[in-house]
Amino acid sequence: MRRADRLFEIVQMLRGRRLTTAAQLARWLEVSERTIYRDVADLLATGVPIEGEAGMGYRIAAHFDLPPLMFTRNEIEALTMGARVVESWGGPSLAQGARAALGKIASALPPDKRATLEAAPLFAPDIGVDGRCTAWIDAVRAAIAARRWIQVDYHDVGGAATQRRLRPLGLYFWGDCWSLAAWCELRQDFRSFRLDRITALHTFDERYPDEQGKRLRDFLRAVGAGE
After folding, report:
1. What is the pTM of this model?
2. What is the dihedral of CA 154, 157, 158, 162, to 10 degrees?
3. How confident is residue 227, by pLDDT bands cut at 50, 70 and 90?
4. DSSP codes of every residue in 121-183
5. Fewest CB within 10 A of the end CB: N or C in the chain?
6. H/E element holding 199?
7. Computed from CA positions of residues 128, 130, 133, 136, in that sequence, does the dihedral angle turn out positive or negative?
8. What is the dihedral of CA 169, 175, 177, 179, to 10 degrees?
9. Please, are residues 117 and 106 in contact by the beta-carbon 8 Å criterion?
10. In angstroms, rounded to a whole number, what is the distance separating the alpha carbons of residues 24 and 12?
């Protein structure tokens, strides 16, 4: 558990309870009592109204809660820009998800921050993006998530047509097109396929095995982008 998560859990455990000892907290969170004492001291230093003392136990008034995290202007604009890029270039399902996410973020913001989001002068028009790039995104994403085989009819840069049975591993966006990273059964090696060169795609019900040497991290290592 990350320390930030542990501090949050300590606050939630102490809210509205009768005295809770450091030994109890240490047992619940699977850390030492010394760690709990240090965490409590740090929470007190940040203004959390913890009552009690070491050896006796701690509690926090039930009405206290941590203040909600709030986005900065840069964070709001980054989220807005990212969502608008996805909405324009990410395919139907991702576009819908981006719009819904922005709506949820806006509803949770105070009025001044909501105005920043709504007025952000950041746009991502979809001009220049081949519609064939986004036509297959939803099907490929679903196949990657479920680890299902796909078969594609594909034309290479020279126009030669082939049919490939693939293990889809990841999607990459290059600014004007999407490409699929996959393990190709025909070549018995990793290959990248531009989505705008796929003319037909079929997803099988059969799931491909999770094999060492044929995973996304193996692909990244093979192209020099891994660890």
Report:
1. 0.66
2. -20
3. very low
4. ------TT--HHHHHTHHHHHHHHHHTEEEEEEEE-TT--EEEEEEEEEEEEE-SS-EEEEEE
5. C
6. strand 198-207
7. positive
8. -20
9. yes
10. 14
